[in-house]
């Protein structure tokens, strides 16, 4: 089967690898849509590991034993390979499982781990059903496109009383705009990329500000009558954006962090948390039990398709990653077939 590979700095190609086989509860899925996510960082550095991709929607094509899915089922493939038996996994919080499985050891094969390929293997409990009327591309947004911000807004109880700030309008932040608008909230975005700012407005943002503008915080506060933002979600992973969230959040407001960040935080415990009373959340993925609610966002958002700006056949992986790196795009999806 075909699989995406990185062969050097900004160099990618499709390679041929053995097809995986279903084994025990590990089900073989034919990948129809593989959204592109953070793997572009490996493309930029020429990271040489052999497989990429953790998001997919596809069709069950082989099962080794009767289980939770059958051949022909259309499914969203949940990320990772958590243990399935710990309390967190059983509670649906599998993304935080502390005992992720050694894929090669449990499946007995070297391929099938990644989604930028024609087939993959996944434990059956991590395959979520796609309603008949939802195409694979839109269903695949139920991973990182819509998932992290959906989870953040579930946690913060975002509703139509709220003004929501989304910092960072890449594919995850654009999903945040969709999720906040779906809940009836007023949405304000922040990003320096004009293409993405315009797209955010198409998807429901009332205003988008450039973080390079020194008056951005004042402009955001002015839009709320000086009161501040009820709930903010950072999708950029940039500490300047974190500082902006703390500054423009209202007293007793909430801030969620979705964008990975490995730098020191500008958070001041006394100023921001104790005196201002901010509540802070770190969010990675959503609780598996909320999947059908997330699917409602997909079913009932007519403009959702605009979030997907580019679709490439897997064979054009070089061009697909170049498009992602150039930033003039929303969510980019690969079609392996
Ligand atoms: Zn677990
Ligand atoms: Zn992702």
Total helix count?
Answer: 12
Compute the separation of the termini in Å: 10 Å
Helix content: 25-40%
Strand content: 25-35%
Rg of Cα set: 20 Å
CATH topology value of the largest domain: Quinone Oxidoreductase, Chain A, domain 1
Give the bound compounds: zinc ion
Please tally the β strands and state the result.
15
Overall structural domain count: 2
| Structural class category | alpha/beta
Biggest sheet architecture: 7 strands, mixed
CATH H level of the largest domain: which superfamily? Medium-chain alcohol dehydrogenases, catalytic domain
The shape is globular
Give the structure's gist in a few sentences.
With 337 residues, the chain is of the alpha/beta class.
Describe this structure in words.
The chain has 337 residues and is of the alpha/beta class. It folds into 2 domains: 2-143 and 301-335, Medium-chain alcohol dehydrogenases, catalytic domain (Quinone Oxidoreductase, Chain A, domain 1, Alpha-Beta Complex), CATH 3.90.180; 147-282, Rossmann fold (3-Layer(aba) Sandwich). Helix content is 28%, strand content 25%. It is built from 12 helices and 15 strands. Strands 3, 4, 5, 6, 7, 14 and 15 form a 7-stranded mixed β-sheet that branches. The protein has a 6-stranded parallel β-sheet with strand order 10-9-8-11-12-13, with helices on both faces. Strands 1-2 form a two-stranded antiparallel ribbon. A hairpin with a 2-residue loop joins strand 1 (2-8) and strand 2 (11-16). Helix 5 crosses helix 6. The mean pLDDT is 97. The structure holds zinc ion (ZN) (2 copies). Residues 82-83, 86, 88-89, 97, 99 line the site of one zinc ion.
């Amino acid at each position: 089967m075909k699989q995406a590979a990185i062969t050097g700095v900004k160099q990618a190609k499709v390679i041929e690898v053995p097809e995986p086989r279903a084994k025990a509860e590990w089900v073989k899925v034919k990948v129809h849509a593989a959204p592109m996510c953070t793997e572009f960082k490996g493309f930029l550095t020429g990271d040489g590991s052999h497989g990429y991709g953790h998001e997919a929607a596809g069709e069950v094509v082989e099962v080794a034993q009767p289980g939770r899915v059958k051949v022909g089922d259309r499914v969203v493939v949940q990320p990772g390979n958590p243990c399935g038996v710990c309390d967190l996994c059983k509670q649906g919080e599998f993304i935080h499982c502390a005992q992720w499985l050694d894929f090669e050891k449990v499946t007995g094969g070297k391929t099938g781990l990644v989604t930028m390929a024609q087939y993959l293997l996944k434990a059956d409990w991590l395959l979520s059903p796609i309603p008949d009327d939802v195409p694979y591309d839109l269903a695949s947004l139920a991973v990182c496109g819509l998932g992290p911000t959906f989870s953040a807004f579930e946690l913060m109880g975002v509703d139509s009383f709220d003004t929501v700030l989304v910092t960072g309008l890449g594919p995850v932040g654009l999903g945040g705009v969709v999720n906040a608008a779906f809940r009836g909230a007023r949405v304000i975005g922040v990003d320096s990329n004009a293409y993405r700012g315009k797209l955010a407005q198409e998807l429901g943002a009332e205003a988008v500000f450039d973080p390079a503008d020194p008056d951005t915080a004042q402009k955001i506060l002015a839009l709320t009558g000086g009161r501040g933002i009820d709930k903010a979600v950072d999708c950029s992973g940039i500490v300047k954006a974190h500082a902006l969230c703390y500054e423009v959040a209202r007293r007793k407001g909430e801030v969620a962090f979705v964008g990975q960040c490995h730098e020191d935080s500008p958070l001041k415990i006394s100023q921001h948390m104790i005196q201002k009373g901010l509540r802070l959340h770190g969010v990675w993925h959503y609780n598996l039990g909320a999947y059908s609610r997330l699917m409602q966002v997909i079913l009932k958002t007519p403009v959702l398709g605009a979030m997907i700006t580019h679709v490439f056949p897997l064979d054009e992986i070089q061009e697909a990653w170049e498009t992602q790196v150039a930033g003039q795009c929303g969510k980019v999806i690969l079609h392996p077939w």
